Structure formats: C-alpha cells, structure tokens
Amino acid sequence: MKRLLLFAVAFIFSINLFAQKTDTLSITLEQVKYAYPVKYLPIQVEGQDLRMAYMDVAPTSKANGRTVMLFHGKNFGGYYWTNVIKALTASGYRVIVPDQIGFGKSSKAFIHYSFHQMAKWNSQLLDSLKIYKAVILGHSMGGMLATRFALLFPEKTEKLVLENPIGLEDYRAFVPYVTTEQQYKTELKTTAESVKKYYQNSYFTEWKPEYDDLVRIAGGVTFSADYPRWAKVAALTFTMIYEQPVVHEFPYVKVPTLLLIGKEDKTIVGKGLLSTEDQKKYGQYKVLGKATAAKIPGSKLIEFDGLGHIPHLEKPEEFMKALIGNL
C-alpha cells in the first residue's frame, strides 16, 4: 500500500513537471508564433541596448496609401491583434504593430517607464519605416499611450482611435498608493489559474474557448525561471499607469478622435485595492465613454452594448465595421 502511494505521488509530481515544461514560455515569447514576421528596432536608453519588436504588414488588397499603428494593452502583445490586422490589410491599409518595450517579444528592461518615452520610441519606429502620418489605435493601456502620442506628435497622428482605454479616470484620486516593490511582490504571486480567473472576471462578458490561448501566453511566462524579471517590469509599468494620467489632457487633443467603447467594461487599475463599494462606483465605461467624448473636442463615440474590455475579440465583426467605417 505504501509503495502504491509513493508511486502515485511520484506520478502526479512527474505529470506536474511535464505540464510545467510544456507550458513554460520565455519572457520574450520566443515560443509564441505571431501571425506575421517580427522585426526589431534597436533602442538605446539608460546605458542599455534594447530592442523593440514589431510587425509591418502590407495591404492584401489595393493599397490606399494609409497606415494604422496598433498599441496593445498592458497584459498583451501584438499577438492579440491578428484579426484586426487581417481586416485592415484587406481594406488596403498598411499596419504597424509594435510590442512596447517591456512587453511581448521586446526587451524586458529595468528602466524608468514613461508614456512620453514610449511615444518617442514609436515615433522613431515610424521614422525608420519612412511613415510620416498614421492612424493611431490604442487599446487599454495602449489607449493611454496613443493619447500621449497624439499630444506629443499631432503632426504624425492622422486620427486617434481609443478602444476601451484605461486612464479615463485619475486612479490616484481613489486607488490607494502602493510602491513598485509592493506591486512586484503581488505580481510574483501570479499563476496561470489566477490569470484565467482575472481574464474571465475582468475582460469578457462571456468566456469562449478561443480566449484560453490568451491565458496560455500570459500564464506560460509564470513558469519561466526569468519570471521575476517579467514581474518586476509589470510592477514598473503599473506604477507608470498610476503616476502618469492622461485624463486631464483630453481637452488638449487636437486630432480627429474616435472612441470605441464596450459599455459593460468595468476595468480599474488597482481594482483589488478597493472596497466592494468603490469597485462598483468607479470603472463604469457606460458613463466614462460619454464623459471622455465630451472632453475631447470634436470626437465621435461608438458604444457597444453587452461588450466588455476587448470588443475586437468579443464581437469582431461589429468592431471591424465600426472601425473601418469610421477611418
């Protein structure tokens, strides 16, 4: 009996090790195949040689001479834009899809993270590709970055498109402050299981099997021996979001702006630090979408009933129709 018990324990342990081995991803996602070839822009900052991954995808129908640049959210990389890239290139657009420094296939650097600096790097990328003007589409954290880009480089921004951006509120006003070190300790506790639970509760109104691939990527890096570096960068960029709001500068946006908002989104950065009562009070995109549109001169708001934080994945056809129809 004892021998059988030891065998069972050993078998379960070996199964867990196998699962970890097969699920493990490097923190630069070498094992994740993007839908299009990935190139790299060299960047030097704070004495470090970094590289910024990006996809440059040509139109698959008659080129219209226009370019769209896609900025991903904090918990993602260029891999979750595939259906948007296909739709835009089929409509004649060239599409540039960077993984921001600290995310996706790009360098995970220990630096001061800044939306201003990120915007400058993306401007450098456009310059390197001899693209002088582009539609800038940002989702979630990418919406904060896209807003900063439009404020810094209006001459390069043909149109600003914000898909459920975070930062429609100043989180400093109601989310308790935590240090980067405290946030780092929180990030270290992340597991594949906690990722899935967070995605289910925060991003989608209804879970679909295809979303499991997003969990496989975000959860896979937690098995890596280098995960503490990923966690540290995640903490540094959390601090960036908290300390560098754009909400107060929406009235200064001077480029044509389109807001695409899933009304059931209730995203709050630092939500877990709030009481249940405050969680219900803030992050209400059915209210925030309209309030933001009123702040940005001449902006257009399109709202999606019954959709959460990522409309381009939850209802792709409805999202693409609204996006391409308003470019």
Topology:
Elements: H1 2-23, E1 39-45, E2 48-57, E3 67-71, H2 82-90, E4 94-98, H3 115-128, E5 134-139, H4 141-152, E6 157-163, H5 180-188, H6 192-202, H7 212-220, H8 227-243, E7 257-262, H9 276-281, H10 285-295, E8 300-304, H11 311-314, H12 316-325
Parallel strand pairs: 3-4, 3-5, 5-6, 6-7, 7-8
Antiparallel strand pairs: 1-2, 2-4
Helix pairs in contact: 3-4, 5-8, 6-7
InterPro entries: AB_hydrolase_1, AB_hydrolase_fold, AB_hydrolase_sf, Epox_hydrolase-like
Domain AB hydrolase-1: 67-316
Protein name: Pimeloyl-ACP methyl ester carboxylesterase
Q: How far apart are the first and last residues' alpha carbons, in Å? A: 70 Å
Task: Please tell me the overall pLDDT.
Answer: 94
How helix-rich are the residues, as a percent range? 40-55%
- Report the radius of gyration as a whole number of Å: 20 Å
Major β-sheet profile = 8 strands, mixed
Query: CATH superfamily assignment?
Result: Alpha/Beta hydrolase fold, catalytic domain
Q: What is the CATH-assigned architecture?
A: 3-Layer(aba) Sandwich
The side-by-side strand order for the widest beta sheet comes to 1-2-4-3-5-6-7-8
CATH topology: Rossmann fold
Number of helices: 12
CATH class annotation: Alpha Beta
Shape label:
globular
Which structural class is indicated by helix and strand composition?
Answer: alpha/beta
Helix and strand pattern: HEEEHEHEHEHHHHEHHEHH
How many individual β-strands? 8
Instruction: Please tell me the total number of domains.
Output: 1
**Which range does the strand content fall in?**
15-25%
